[in-house]
Amino acid sequence: MTDAIVEHPEAVQDDTQTGVRRRDFIEIAAVSFAGIGGIAVLFPLISQMAPSADVLAESTTELDISAIQPGQSVKAVFRKQPVFVRNLLPAEIAEAAAVDVSSLRDPQTLAERTKEGKENWLITMGVCTHLGCVPLGAGEGENKGEFGGYFCPCHGSHYDTAARIRKGPAPTNLLVPEYEFTSDTTVQIG
Amino acid sequence: MSFPWAQQYQPKSGFTRWIDEKLPLPRLVYNAVGAGYPVPRNLNYFWNFGVLAGFCLVLQIITGVVLAMHYAPNALVAFDSVEHIMRDVNWGWMLRYAHANGASFFFVVIYIHIFRGLFFSSYKAPREMIWLLGVVIFLLMMATAFMGYVLPWGQMSFWGAKVITGLFSAIPLVGEPLQIWLLGGFAPDNAALNRFFSLHFMMPFIIAGVVILHIWALHIPGSSNPTGVEIKDESDTIPFHPYYTAKDGFGLAVFLVLYTSFVFFLPNYLGHPDNYIPANPLSTPAHIVPEWYFWPFYAILRAFTQDFLFLPAKLMGVIAMFAAILVWFFLPWLDKSPVRSGLYRPLFRKFFWFGLIPTMGVLFYCGGAPAEEPYVMLSQIAALYYFAHFLIVLPIVSIIEKPKPLPHSITDAVLNHRTGADDAVPLSTTGERPTDSRPGPDDAGLYRPAGA
Amino acid sequence: MARFIAILVGLFFGVILLWSFGVGLYTWATEEHETTAEHVFYEHPRDAKLPSAGVFGTFDVQQLQRGYKVYKEVCAACHALRHVAFRDLAQLGYSEAQVKAEAATWQVPGVDPNTGEAASRPGLATDYFPSPYPNDIAARAANNNAVPPDLSLITKARHDGSNYVYSLITGYQDQPAALLAQFPDAKTPNGLHYNPYFPNLNIAMAPPLTSDGQVTFDDGSSSTVASMSRDVAAFLTWAAEPTLAKRHQAGWPVVLFLIIASILAYLAYQNVWRNQKH
């Protein structure tokens, strides 16, 4: 712009002060439109990497828990990740309740981690909160760690019977996903 | 090289000065498409299409990279993965339609760009290398577009792959093994699909590389212009920025209106319904045609219907189809008229508008029509003229034609808005240079004697 | 020299093309031009007047629900819809619970959780519509050697597809006497059905909708053959491109934005060039 005016000083005289302003406004508007358009184009380009409709459709999982005996646990799949469903024994519940909550790294009671009236059903993600390995302890005969819950073999995190972190590098307890009992024998996770 | 009056890049801050010393990339951009590139002041809208083509290439690369995040190059799931993009991926339908129609619009732009070059003889010295690189880009584009069309693995994809690789089987002796090697099998299947995907992903970057060479070569003599008279002094030019960035911005906006109209309202108009049928090796669609941008050359392929002496029709069709593009490589040496612009060449102009353009129209129409009469006979006549135009008409016209007088300079043409004014220099074919004009940077080609 | 060679090459191509042209012309002039029944009697699809047509086209949810019912009760016996999932039915205005219940009315292939053998189970929302046949061979065997095409893309896989579906279903008729008079050999073979909207005039599919009231619509709409055909054409248009309405909706702001941008760009261009002759 300025180059043009400098090159042709005679032309500047034609421009009244308001004329210049109006003309500058048009250029600013045109460039702004280009900018808005460019930013608008980014939206679909970014959005396409978010989960697609078929992935989102699988974001809830329904489980039949009628076959899980006390003391047993199963590994199910929720959002392509393992989820542990554990039917706690009364002894395990008592063991979890006996722990001094204030001494824990991530203080939570078992009651806070289960649904009211269903304290024996401990449902957690099977994803170690340290770096995402799958802890042992859900399968029969697997190492349950020093506290009788879960043990992550990658970096040695020990979880207790309420799946709370007790020893090792993991920063928080195993995550409890959102879930609800749709009936006495079925749970919908997610 | 540059014109001596070109504006010089001046770093404005300490940081840009630091960058300029270490890696003068801003300077490169400034000199290539900024204020440092002096451009003839008289370019018309046909000169917008180079920038538009560059935009299309970027558009295709961006949408293509994004689509490749969701597409699966496997014959079992390729078709389904495209439907997954269309139905489930966020904005996937828009990205795919943008890519498919982007290919078509890329060819629209490129054809206008090429035929602008043909009319204004942009291939002539000193711009032969720009033209040659341009033809290379066009060939690479055709290969890329063809392989991209195979990827959805619909019926047209499959049979297109089969027919086009079948062209190579026309080559004597090595043809059949060559086709099998190209496909990695006896018919298009997983191996072919995978390699086509790999190559389709890679080739745009090769095209981008050749585009850089194309632009580099352009900056040696500078842009041509509608008069065909070379730049003589500073008054003939204006800086690319802001003048042509503003004009190209307007052209781009109009282009986008047309392009998005197709993407959102007619996304399948330029495609073929049969490609929404999954590939079936046991049944050929009733009318198999390539994408529209191949129709003129497809018509030339099909125009050869009879064996001639020892030359099989199939081989001649393939040779002619490739020759139809390869002939463009030789244009700088076939058309030796000392005048570039078709505006000053009365005879050439008649052959261009009443010969070449209708011929392309007929070839285009016949290429998309079924292989029956009268389309075959029409395409034979059109193909005949096509070759005659470049190989016979252009060389002869450039000898016998008496061009109109050229303006002294670009400035002169702009100020007087006329062609062949009284005081214009009648251009002789003897190569005499008007004495009153300053020699332009590279006007040797313009005044080179016709027979040189 | 270059030009001399070029002229020779040009003559070479010219001679061969003239030879091909001459032989073609001679053959064309001397041989009889046989036309075929489909050249004369094929008809282009009639306009079904669907709300999805045109640049403002959108979907009528009620119509899609009716069309879905026609598909389920009539078409689904032979035709798959493999790219559509039950969860997609939510776009037809069904609630999540309705979609779940609807999915459960379909049997989809699954695995017996105890033995691992193939079995069928009620569908889940995430399942896709099941194919009525386990494979093409079974489909061929059950349908007089013709495979019923998958319908999930049918309106995009045929020229003027939405109208084609409507016209085809309503287009069954007796073979015209004029056709038999002109082409005595073109009698519709046994097991095929005459339909002028089918490219070769003889289609293997028996008329799917034969009587008014064949499907009872939940919204009480009349179900004539024509209206059922129109509804199922609308449903299949949706099935082929569920994003169609969204595409039209997104298109208008984009195009209008760009038209304004073009005007601004033109003014800016004129502004930048105001002092320059060109």
From TrEMBL, chain A:
What membrane topology was assigned to this protein in its record? Answer: Single-pass membrane protein
Q: Which residues cross the membrane?
A: 25-46
Q: What class of enzyme is it?
A: translocase
Which InterPro entries does this chain map to? Answer: Rieske_2Fe-2S, Rieske_2Fe-2S_sf, Rieske_Fe-S_prot, Rieske_Fe-S_prot_C, Ubiq_cytC_Rdtase_Fe-S_su_TAT, Ubiquinol_cyt_c_Rdtase_Fe-S-su
Q: How is the cofactor bound?
A: Binds 1 [2Fe-2S] cluster per subunit.
CDD domains, alphabetized: Rieske_cytochrome_bc1
This protein's cofactor list reads:
[2Fe-2S] cluster
Read off the NCBIfam families from this record: Rieske_proteo (TIGR01416)
Summarize the protein's role: Component of the ubiquinol-cytochrome c reductase complex (complex III or cytochrome b-c1 complex), which is a respiratory chain that generates an electrochemical potential coupled to ATP synthesis.
Q: How does it assemble?
A: The main subunits of complex b-c1 are: cytochrome b, cytochrome c1 and the Rieske protein.
What protein is this chain from? Ubiquinol-cytochrome c reductase iron-sulfur subunit
Q: Which organism is it from?
A: Croceicoccus esteveae
Protein's gene: petA
UniProtKB/TrEMBL annotation, chain B:
Q: What is its main location?
A: membrane
Q: Which SUPFAM superfamilies match?
A: a domain/subunit of cytochrome bc1 complex (Ubiquinol-cytochrome c reductase), Transmembrane di-heme cytochromes
User: How does the UniProt record describe the way this protein sits in the membrane?
Assistant: Multi-pass membrane protein
Q: Which residues does the UniProt record annotate as the domain Cytochrome b/b6 N-terminal region profile?
A: 15-227
Start and end residues of each stretch annotated as Disordered: 421-452
Q: Where in the cell is it found?
A: Membrane
- Gene3D superfamilies, from UniProt? Cytochrome Bc1 Complex, Chain C
Q: Which cofactor does it need?
A: heme b
Domain (Cytochrome b/b6 C-terminal region profile) spans 230-408
TM helices/strands, residue ranges: 45-72, 93-114, 129-151, 163-184, 196-218, 250-270, 308-331, 351-371, 383-400
Q: Which keywords does UniProt give here?
A: Electron transport, Heme, Iron, Membrane, Metal-binding, Respiratory chain, Transmembrane, Transmembrane helix, Transport
Subunit structure of this chain's protein: The main subunits of complex b-c1 are: cytochrome b, cytochrome c1 and the Rieske protein.
Name the family.
Belongs to the cytochrome b family.
User: Can you name this protein?
Assistant: Cytochrome b
Q: Which organism is it from?
A: Croceicoccus esteveae
- Upper taxonomic lineage: Bacteria, Pseudomonadati, Pseudomonadota, Alphaproteobacteria, Sphingomonadales
From TrEMBL, chain C:
Q: Say yes or no: keyword Transport present.
A: no
SUPFAM superfamilies, per this entry?
A: Cytochrome c
Localization recorded for this chain is: Membrane
Major location category of this protein: membrane
Where in this chain does the record put each Cytochrome c domain? 62-169
List all membrane-crossing ranges.
250-269
Name under which the protein is recorded: Cytochrome c1
* InterPro entries xrefs: Cyt_c-like_dom, Cyt_c-like_dom_sf, Cyt_c1
Keywords carried by this UniProt record: Heme, Iron, Membrane, Metal-binding, Transmembrane, Transmembrane helix
